[in-house]
Amino acid sequence: MQKSLTNPPSNGYELLKQNRIVRILETVQDLFVISLCMALFALMAIQLREMFFELLPPLDFPGVTSDILFLLILVELFRLLIIYLQEQRVSIGVAVEVSIVSVLREVIVRGVLETSWVQILAACAFLIVMAALLVVRVWLPPTFDGVDPEKRLSIRNQLLTTDNSSYPIETATHVNSQPVASTVVNGTNGLVHQD
């Protein structure tokens, strides 16, 4: 069968050190995303203030429309960052929606009649691809029919790290072997008692 290219950490200290490093990096990344959220929120407040000043006479309809659409783009980006903080993933649907609104904003601000036909054709092709991506995203299950590779790897690591505990466990050399599959089905968190 397949051999692992890298050996798993042999002692608990190396495993703890790797987990600690990963947690520290994830925390730093979350702090970056939080700072982006705060900066985006401040930019939305500034943009809203400018939009209200543009509503005063003389009224500039293209400018107001552009500001409203830009504010909607900022709101969607803010929502994308919030989803990332909550679920630790980038939402494809929100990212596609931001792309669609951005392209439509550019077409509306420039005006369809002032834009060359090649740019309009490219924008239409891009919008068709984005719409197809939205449709395909709905049909795909989020974890590909319940297969969660991270869960399988964490169970394998649990089996390997609890090998020296007081409970005898069945160790597996392959993730797809029977002992690992039985622990997933039984939900015993990696501890399987032998009779």
Order of helices and strands: HHHHHH
Shape: elongated
Low-confidence stretches: 144-149, 166-195
Whole-number tally of structural domains: 2
- Give the count of helical stretches: 6
Please, could you describe this protein's structure?
The C terminus is likely disordered. This protein has 195 residues and is mainly α. The protein has two domains: 128 residues, no CATH class; 38 residues, no CATH class. The chain has six helices and no strands. The longest helix has 43 residues. Helix 1 packs antiparallel against helix 2 and helix 2 packs antiparallel against helix 3. The protein is elongated and about 75 Å long.
Quick structural summary:
This protein is mostly helical. It has helices at 12-54, 61-87, 92-110, 117-139, 149-161, 178-186.
Key traits:
disordered C terminus, 195 residues, elongated, 69% helix, mainly alpha
Write the layout of secondary structure elements.
Layout: H1 12-54, H2 61-87, H3 92-110, H4 117-139, H5 149-161, H6 178-186
Helix pairs in contact: 1-2, 2-3, 3-4
